[in-house]
Structure formats: structure tokens, C-alpha cells
Amino acid sequence: MKSFMWTNLYFSMNTMKPNQSIDYMDNVTLNVSANDVNMTGITQIMIPQELFLMLGLISLVENILVIAAIIKNRNLHSPMYYFICCLAVSDMLVSVSNVVETVFMLLTDHGLLSVTARMLRHLDNVIDIMICSSVLSSLSFLCTIAADRYITIFYALRYHSIMTTQRAVAIIAIVWLTSITSSSLFIIYHTDNAVIACLVTFFGVTLVFTAVLYLHMFILAHVHSKRIMALDKNSRQATSMKGAITLTILLGVFIICWGPFFLHLILILTCPTNPYCKCYFSHFNLFLILIICNSLIDPLIYAYRSQELRKTLKEIVLCSWCFVM
Hints:
Elements: H1 49-72, H2 79-109, H3 117-154, H4 159-162, H5 165-188, H6 193-226, H7 231-270, H8 275-281, H9 284-305, H10 307-324
Helix pairs in contact: 1-2, 1-9, 1-10, 2-3, 2-5, 2-9, 3-5, 3-6, 3-7, 6-7, 7-9, 9-10
């Protein structure tokens, strides 16, 4: 696999071998960027590297603020916000990898940095792990948050005994360990089309799982709420549904931003030489922009949907501004 912007980068469509398999580790020409030359002969839509850098920096700052707010505010120390914090970390991995790689490209293109092929290979491997881990962990945490909201709504009286802090921490550790391990294996077997097939399958399975949970929640939540007549429980039910709606928005944004990219992977497997597929491949740089935009939009959703988080974010920004002044 290649990372975000070096020679068609991470998960992109590199030189096709005679047997039509995908080679993600082609040799790199250090003084030519992926936006200037497409190794498949397909003309890519040109997007300035400065735009990637700007979006990456904004996304990075936003996600750092969200993580800091959740850590600072004890009212946000609950399993749901722990999972949201991890989702922000996943988005931050995309931002960090994008910023680091874009800076390397800009410095190299302007002759300010000399990078050997070996150094570049190591950089690619590190960024590949970061981005692949981000994809897998984001999908996993979206599923985890959906399950958490499901338990909150349908097992409200037992929620705190089911989803304890210890279990939440264990789930987080398992997700990250699995994501990093899987990413490393994907890099080892990067030349196998089975890697792409596994990612596409995981994407589809997690979306179906999450969609089924949300469908069940929204169909039966109204009926379930009638069974809980106490005022405090009704309030808890309303809060839980608000959390479910927030995560539904997050899931929708994730599908919109990552969907074209995964369709790109599907087309690589099914019709790599079809003219219509090649036309779709030419928009790959736009798919990268959408992925970065997902990392940028998610923190805005957190802040918009959570008054407590929004309040803490304002305090952090104001304190930072006063410190600078």
C-alpha cells in the first residue's frame, strides 16, 4: 500500500500488472508527486497540495480540541464519550498522516529536502499503518457507539452494570490492538487483492450491523419509552435518543465521505480496465479530499450536538487565546 499522496498513495490504484493484480509498492520517483504523474496513465483531477495541507491542519486542530475537552470535563467521562474520543483520535490519525506527507512532498518538490527511497518506504509504511488503523478503528467505534446507544435505550435500567468503565476501556484496547495488528498484516500482504476484499467486506458488514441497530432503535424506541413512565427515566430516554441521532449523523457523514473511496476499491477488483471505471478512478484526489473532510466535519457534529462539549471547547479556546495574548 502507498500512503495518501506519494505516487497514488494509500489504497489507490497503482500500475496494473499483466494479471491485473494491484501493486501498492511500486518504485518511487522522489522529485515527482502523485498529482503530477499518474502511473496508470489515467489523468487525475489536479488539486493543490496546499489545500490538502490546509484541510489537514484544520482537522488536526479540531480533533485535538475535542480530545482535550473530553479529557478536561469530568461530566464527559462516560463510555459514550470515551468512544467518541477514540473516534476523534482515529480522525486525527488521518489528519496527522496527511499533514506529514504533504509537508514532505512540498519540501521535496521545492528542493528543500532530500529523501532516499529507503526513507520514503519507511515513511509510507508508518503512514499506511496510521491510515489503515484509522479506517478500521473508525468503523469499529461507530459500531461500538451504536451498540452503546442500543443498550442505553433498550436496557436503560441495566446500562451502568452492562457498560462499565472497565468494559469500555477493554473494548477500546481490543479495537486499537486489532486495528493496528490488522493494518500491519495488510501492509505485509499488500500485493494480494484479498487485502482490498477484506477491507470492502469489513466496511459493508459494519455498516449493515450499525444500520440494523439504528433501525431497531428508531422503530421501537417510542414503544419502549411508553413502558418507562418515571420522569427521570423519560429524561434519560430522551438523552439516549439524542445520542443515537448524533451518531446517526456521524454515520451518514462517514458513508458520504468514505463511500466513494470504497467504491473505488470495489471497482479496482471488478473492472480495473473498464473505460467507465477509469473515468471514476480519475477523481481519486477528490475522494482523498472527502476523507479529510470527514475528519474535519466530525468535531463540528460533536460540538453542535453536545452542549456540554461545546461549553468546554469554548473554555479551552478562550484560555488558549488568553495564554497567547
